[in-house]
Amino acid sequence: MTAGYRRAAPGGELRQRGAALITALLVAALAAVMVSGMLWQQWSMISREQAAREAAQARWLLRGALDWSRLILREAQATSQVTYLGQPWSVPLADASLGTFLAAGRGAAGNLANTWLEGRIVDAQSKFNLFNLAPQGKPVDNAVHTLQRLETQLGIAPTVGDAIVQGIAAANAGAASNSPDAPLPLRALSDLARLSPQVAQALPTLQPYVTLLPVATPVNANTAPAPVLAATLDIAPDAAARLVQTRKQKYFDSVNAVIQSLGPTSSTSTPDISVNSSFFEATARIRIGHFEYAERALLQRVGQGVLLLRVERVPSWTARPPS
C-alpha cells in the first residue's frame, strides 16, 4: 500500500501545485509588464525633456542667426540704394558647424561642436506680390493680368487665379471694414491653401514665383526670375531671359536702365518694377545631432533699420538653397 501511495499523489495536491505554478508565472509576467511600463515612461519623459531642451536651444541659436541676417541687410542698405544678387545677403550659408565659428573666435566650442547651421536670405520682392491683386479690396486689372500671364507660363488653370483674386479681395476688404463677419486674414502664402483644393494643389508650383506681403510692392528687376519678369513687364520669355543675362554683367541701377535694356519698342510705363527691395525672407536650419529645427522670418528694411514682421516654423528642407 505504501508503494502504491508513492506512485500516485492525491489529485487535489497536484491541482494545488499547478495552480501555484500558474500564479507564480502570472505574477512574474505582471511584474515584468509593470517594470517595462515604468522604464518606457521614464525613457519617454527623458526623450521629451531632451527634445524640449534641444528645441529651446535651437530657437535661441536661430534668434542669433536672425540678428546676423538683419545686420547684413542693414549694412547692404547703408552701402547701396540698389538691391541686387551680388550683395553679401544673397550668398547662402552652407551647412557649417558652430564649433568652427567659436574656434575661429578663440572661444570654447563645448557642446556646439555637434551643432550645425544652414540658411539663406531671399529677396521677397523678387516674386510677384499677391497683395497687389486687390490692395483696397477690389481687383486691380494690371495685377490680375500679371497673375494670368504667370499662370500661363507655369501651366496653371485660370480657375486657380480666379480663386486667388477673389480670396485676396475678400480678405483685404474684410480687414479694412473690421467686420466680425469678415473672412480670416491671409498673412502668409500657406494661408491660400484654404481657398480651394485647386489652389492648395497649385501652391508648390507657384511658391518660387509669388509671395504675400502686408503691403503692395513692385518687383525688383535685379533679383526676379525670368518668368516673373516676363509676366510683370508683359514681354516674351526669351526677352525676360535676356534681361537676366544682362544684369549678370551689370546690375540695373535704375528703372530707366531696365527700360533701355528692353529696347526701343518697349513700354515706358513700368510702375510695377523697381531696383530696390524692402522685404526679405530669412530661413535658417539648426541641426543638433539628429534633431532638426527650421524657421523663416519676414524682414522689412525701413530707413536704416530692419524690422521683424513675423517668424514661423517651416520644414527643414526649405533652408537649403534651390538646386
How does this structure look, described?
By secondary structure, the protein is of the alpha/beta class. The protein has four domains: 2-45; 51-126 and 278-319, Pantoate--beta-alanine Ligase, Chain: A,domain 2; 128-207, no CATH class; 218-272, no CATH class. Helices cover 48% and strands 16% of the residues. The chain contains nine helices and nine strands. It has a five-stranded antiparallel sheet with strand order 1-2-7-8-9. Helix 4 packs across helix 7 (226-233) and helix 7 crosses helix 8 (237-249). The longest helix is centred in the first third of the chain and has 69 residues, at 11-79. It is elongated. The N and C termini lie far apart (95 Å).
Spatial strand sequence of the major β-sheet: 1-2-7-8-9
Strand percentage lies at 15-25%
CATH architecture of the largest domain: 2-Layer Sandwich
Q: What quaternary form is this? A: single chain
| Level-1 CATH class name of the largest domain | Alpha Beta
Low-pLDDT ranges: none
Q: Whole-Å distance between the termini?
A: 95 Å
Shape: elongated
- Determine the mean pLDDT: 85
Q: In the CATH scheme, what's the topology name of the largest domain?
A: Pantoate--beta-alanine Ligase, Chain: A,domain 2
Report the total helices.
9
Largest sheet properties: 5 strands, antiparallel
The run of helices and strands is: HHEHEEHHHEEHHHEEEE
Radius of gyration from the CA trace? 31 Å
Defining key terms:
323 residues; Pantoate--beta-alanine Ligase, Chain: A,domain 2; five-stranded antiparallel sheet; two-stranded parallel ribbon; 9 helices; 48% helix; elongated
